[in-house]
Design goal:
By secondary structure, the protein is α+β, with helices and mostly antiparallel strands. It has 3 domains: 36-80 and 89-94, Complement Module, domain 1; 96-213, Complement Module, domain 1; 236-331, 3-Layer(aba) Sandwich (Rossmann fold), CATH 3.40.50.410. It has helices spanning 2-10, 15-26, 221-235, 270-288, 322-331; strands at 40-43, 52-56, 61-62, 67-72, 75-77, 93-94, 96-97, 106-109, 115-116, 120-125, 130-132, 136-138, 151-153, 168-171, 180-185, 190-192, 196-198, 211-213, 236-238, 248-250, 257-263, 295-301, 305-309. The strands form 9 sheets. The chain has a 4-stranded antiparallel sheet, with no helix packed on it. A 3-stranded antiparallel sheet has the order 8-10-12, with no helix packed on it. A 3-stranded antiparallel sheet has the order 14-15-17, with no helix packed on it. A hairpin with a 3-residue loop joins strand 22 and strand 23 (305-309). The longest helix is centred in the C-terminal third of the chain and has 19 residues, at 270-288. It is flat. Bound molecules: 2-acetamido-2-deoxy-beta-D-glucopyranose (2 copies). The site of one 2-acetamido-2-deoxy-beta-D-glucopyranose has 3 residues, from loops.
């Protein structure tokens, strides 16, 4: 394209055609400096304006830049760095797990500055302390340690020692009724779970054990399934006396609100979108086997948001039937 423009520059009469050619050419992006070492990328619409580039690294590695969008005029957002022969360009990097820096009343071995995928740590308690949780943990490809938080404690308090999960710092070392412990994550890690927990009369802690996530840390489908089924199980209690474990009564206030958001943006491949849609349909159908009628709120979001069912509809006469919700999910056109 540059050549054509130079040529037309000399013949100002046909300059207009250059601009027109230039307009189509300029609005696209180029694939210069995009490749990632150790991985590959996909483009949703080639190098056309609006195309989304997604980087893929093998399991156990992550890309420091997850995606880019072609803004036109050969500009990607974010811009790739010009690769200089002396400096490495974009590379897939080894996944790390949060440091078990807060482990108390015992020792971690080996003690390292950083722990990478497949690194193994073992935990030992000082004498007088008993270990609960995992004695050995391996750093998994999703950025989390296998097993559960190792805790060294002397069982004398009302609540058990809530531990110091990898990556966290804890304040609070009293575990009697009403005592609080607070957590924060080291560095720029994001805390998922409870940053504050209180010792209850029942001898349990409020909330959930905190976890520290890197930007690339993710939950495996198995982890999600476990948390999801646990939360449904605690919301729904089975009345075993009536029918063979089939009748389910809603706990407490008898309301179950399920919110689902489905990502249909360009960075999500249509086959992945289809799979997610199938999972949601299966989930709705499975739950409808129980004698509960949860209220659903389902949105599909891309550049615009499409509401499949609105939770407030259930409080109107116009509420959609379950099969209509499923039909509407099916009808959603990914392409638009
Ligand atoms: C981690 O170990 C597994 C099993 O030995 C291996 O397949 C995988 O390639 C290793 N991952 C990395 C990033 O080295
Ligand atoms: C996704 O689902 C739609 C609608 O069911 C179907 O037409 C399309 O072929 C599917 N695409 C892929 C890639 O699975």
């Amino acid at each position: 394209m540059a050549k054509i423009c130079l040529w037309t520059y000399l013949f100002t009469l046909i300059r207009v055609s250059c601009l027109m050619l230039g307009a189509t050419a300029d609005s696209d992006c180029s694939e210069d400096n995009l490749p990632i070492e150790g991985g590959h990328y996909t483009l949703s619409k080639g190098v056309k304006v609006g195309s989304v580039l997604v980087y893929n690294c093998p399991s156990g590695y992550y890309s420091p830049v997850r995606s880019r969008r072609c803004l036109g005029n050969r500009k990607w957002d974010p811009l790739p760095k010009r690769s200089r022969p002396t400096r490495p360009g974009l590379q897939c990097k080894l996944v790390r797990c949060p440091h078990p820096l807060g482990f108390q009343h015992g020792s971690v071995s080996p003690l390292q500055d950083k722990y990478y995928v497949n690194d193994t740590t073992t935990y030992e308690c000082f004498s007088d302390y008993k270990l609960s949780g995992s004695e050995t943990r391996v750093c998994n490809a999703n950025g989390k340690w296998s097993g559960s938080t190792p805790i060294c404690s002397r069982n004398s308090d009302h609540c058990p020692d809530p531990g110091v999960p990898a990556g966290t710092r804890r304040t609070g070392n009293e575990f009697y009724i009403g005592d609080k412990v607070t957590y924060r994550c080291e560095d720029a890690l994001t805390l998922i779970g409870s940053n504050e927990r209180t010792c209850k009369e029942s001898g349990e802690w409020t909330g959930q054990e905190p976890e520290c996530y890197y930007e690339y840390t993710y939950d495996t489908p198995e982890e999600i399934a476990e948390v999801f089924s646990k939360s449904i199980q605690t919301t729904l209690t089975e009345d075993m006396n009536k029918q063979q474990g089939k009748k389910i009564n809603l706990d407490k206030d008898g309301n179950l609100h399920i919110y689902i958001a489905l990502d249909a943006s360009d960075s999500i491949d249509i086959s992945i979108f289809n799979q997610s849609r199938d999972v949601i349909k299966q989930l709705i159908e499975k739950i409808s086997d129980y004698e509960v009628s949860p209220k659903y709120d389902i949105v599909v979001f891309a550049t615009k948001v499409t509401k499949i069912v609105d939770i407030t509809d259930y409080y109107k006469r116009t509420a959609k039937k379950l099969f209509e919700v499923i039909e509407d999910l099916d009808r959603f056109d990914y392409g638009t």
